[in-house]
Design a protein that fits this description.
The complex is a heterotrimer of chains A (222), B (418) and C (293). Chain A has helices spanning 2-41, 44-52, 65-82, 87-92, 97-130, 133-162, 166-182, 196-201, 203-219. Chain A has one domain. Helix content of chain A is 80%, strand content 0%. In chain C, the strands form three sheets. Chain C has a six-stranded mixed beta sheet with strand order 6-7-8-3-9-10, with helices on both faces. Chain C has a four-stranded antiparallel beta sheet with strand order 2-1-4-5, with no helix packed on it. A four-stranded antiparallel beta sheet of chain C has the order 12-13-11-14, with helices on both faces. Chain C has two domains: 3-216, P-loop containing nucleotide triphosphate hydrolases (Rossmann fold, 3-Layer(aba) Sandwich); 221-290, Alpha-Beta Plaits (2-Layer Sandwich), CATH 3.30.70. In chain C, 40% of the residues are buried. Classes of the chains: A mainly alpha (222), B alpha+beta (418), C alpha/beta (293).
Amino acid sequence: MWRSILLKEWLKIRWFLAAALIVNLGFIIKIFVDIRSILSAEHAQMVWYQAVHLHTVFHHDMRYVPLLTGLTLAAAQFFPEILGRRMRIALHLPMARDGMMFFCLAFGLGVVGAIFLVDALFIHLTMRAYFPFEVAVSAVMTALPWFLAGVWGYLGAVAVLLETAWPRRVFFFLVFSVLIAMLYSGVGYGWLTPALPWLGALLLPAFLCVFESARRFQRGGA
Amino acid sequence: MLKTLSRLSFLVLAILAMSYILPLSFDKVFGKHNEDPLLFYSPVLHQFVYQESLGGHRFNYLDEEGRSYSRQEFEALLPFVYSRNLERRDLLPMVLEGRSFDAQSISEDRQGLEIRARHVRGQKPRIQLYPLFNNDPQVAMMRFPVEVFRFTPNAMEFIDADHNRLDPHLTGRFTEALKDKGFVFPAEVIGGRPTNLKPFDDGYFIGDSMGQVFHVKRVLNEPQIFRLPLDSPLDILDVVVTEHERREFHGVIITRQGEVFLIRWGDYGLIPLPVKDYDPRSMDLKLLIDPLYRTVTVSSRGAVTGVAMDAGYQVIRRYELPRREAASDLVRHSRDFLFPFQLTLESPHHGQAHVGLHVGGPWSLAGILLAFALFFLLSRRDPPFPANKGDLAVVALSGLLGLTAVAFMKGDFFPSAA
Amino acid sequence: MKNVIEVHNLCHRYNGRSIYENLNFSVPEGSVCGLLGKNGQGKTTLVNILMGFLKPTSGTCLVLGENSHNLSPAVRHRVGLLHEGHLAYEFMTITQTEKFFRGCYPGWKSEVFFHLMDKMGLPHNHRVGNMSCGQRSQVVLGVIMAQSPDLLILDDYSMGLDAGYRRLFLDVLHDFAAQGNKTIFVTSHIVQDLEQLVDTIIFLDKGEIMQVGLDQFMRTFRKYVFQCERDASLPKDEVIRGFEQRGRQVALYSYEDMEAVDRHLASLGIQAHQLCRAPMSLEDGFIGLMGKY
């Protein structure tokens, strides 16, 4: 039965996943090319100085890409389900609603997480090619809140899409927007690192609250 | 179980988001901007005077007794601070304590130093890679070295930026030299100014794992290392290097206990600054040196404390200026009333995110009571807004914020319309 | 005989407006029950409650013994739903649809599904989203038939279908009902079709329910026609349950026999020329009983 759900989710997102991967990798290539051209124009030690002591974040351009990725995949997965309240089909399948939601979310989060893992890996490799280890690690740490924003965006979009009452939908949107905006505060590298455990821990309630949205969706009238 | 958890989860998120954004917006609208008063020791009055911001570029100029001064009078009380203005007003040279000072002599013997909590080690992100400038008496220009150094558990490594790889030669030379001088790896703290926008290079002051401090310089590409003659190991929080033309001291050592020492030029002796109850992680420290006096001020949450010293760092006068609330009572009470607590990410003492939860005062209780009353009022509505224990607890803990969140989560409060 | 659907004291309000109060009815196992009601009488709401996508304000609604808004997976397994508009996963092809549902229903009958699909003559890699409404309805029908449910709930299956596809539906549903112990609960805006399918009718009007066997209804409810000189504005009462006038031709609906109707018309001062009983279709009966609007 879970394989069927997997099939359904896969069919919905595959083209969007491909597009997301292309955009993500495109940005990483852009960053790679940018850094290379900066290094050819300036002395390496000055570029290092900018990275380490002036807090220049060379992969700054891609900070909204993970958020966009999360939102896109959530929409790809759940927009077809809310059109005509099509998720009623899935909700009637002989499986527990919460279990099915868990599986759908786990699938979506797994895909989003995998993309971010690829991002993180390539950011690290790109930075490592031109900078000392510390800078590469810091670059990944700096990108972590962006990835977190992607996951938050994914969960928030799912919750907002599943809500049936407009006032609540708007409220959900605002709440998640504020939480996501928090992940973009600060300047330079590693600004949010001390808050990451807290912001990361909030993923659990964000994950859990989607189940109520799904329950309300089921009971939400025609 | 999941239903309750799931519902509660959103309430928690909503309340956290509101307790973050709403007080921030409130402050933006009602302006709770608290600028530090500037505290100086006046060599004319021989007491402290200060400038207090009233907001909107308006200031009060006062002395310890609360006497008020005009801006010009105030500047005249602080000839060393406002020497340029006094010179323009033809008030220089002036004679103080039997010595005559003109603009030139004042500027040559002035030095300012500020150590803000948000810049102290551990309060902001720092990648521990530093350029070690090469001191060559033949070359006037300070050229950025191609290598940066880092400390590993057992070496001082140099990495070549051109090739992004270890420079074994420099690494070996400096590591051996440090070991020869008794340096015990790893390094605890590294203090220096990784910039070439400075009059000269004074290298780095590096604390080792035993609480010893070493002055490390690179002269003609060779290590020049000096171990500071400390009486006892120091529990160092941070070292700030000054590289100031006066060359009175190399820099400042701050310990975790809040002691502050200047590292004297020449013999590397430590000059303790007479600060009391200084917490470098939450207070800003300023040292102001003029031809006659040294003033150290410490800004804490509740007050700005000043200590005036003579040129030999002996205390002459202490003064504590309590801080005034910038916002009016009405604004502060309304704020507490609306928001029983505030979630913050930014802190004035951190150069990076610092999660904080600030609980309101007694007015918050009034806000919670109002929320309770509204809650019961709403529960009599039709369609009903059923009261359950969990929601009551949420409202009890978070007042009007919680009530707002609960209202949006009520099943029948907003009829579903698909 | 046990009941597959049992509704007790069902009340539902929407935006503070009462849709119905104290609704009671049941559908016994093996019956084919049609829900009839004019637009806006809460038909879709009732179907949504039965399907488990709306929680009633109060009262109980049991489907195969469980609360409809909280059906266990085991019971859902035994219920086939056809949503209004033939809801299907448009992003799937025929093959993918089959694969998807096969994995969800252990007793899935692939041959039933493909038998229906092959009638359409579409390649199996055809996407549901690119199909006509009729073709899509066949896919949905194939899906619920292959599930082999014990109870079918069909919400306006005829919506958007031409006569051919509607006939196809009737054929398939007829065969399904003939298997015995299978229950069908159906609504349709094409009342005429139901006449060929259902054995029980539930009329839903102004929050009230009337449940009756099809045969009994067709036997006891009668249509009379007569000619009338002028505009005959007839009252609705115990005898005259409804009437239609087209020119001088009046159709009158009643549970009474012709004699009683004739007397009643005379007492109302209406001259009914050529009063006679006319053959009545279910649609006639529906209009006669519920009115046109």
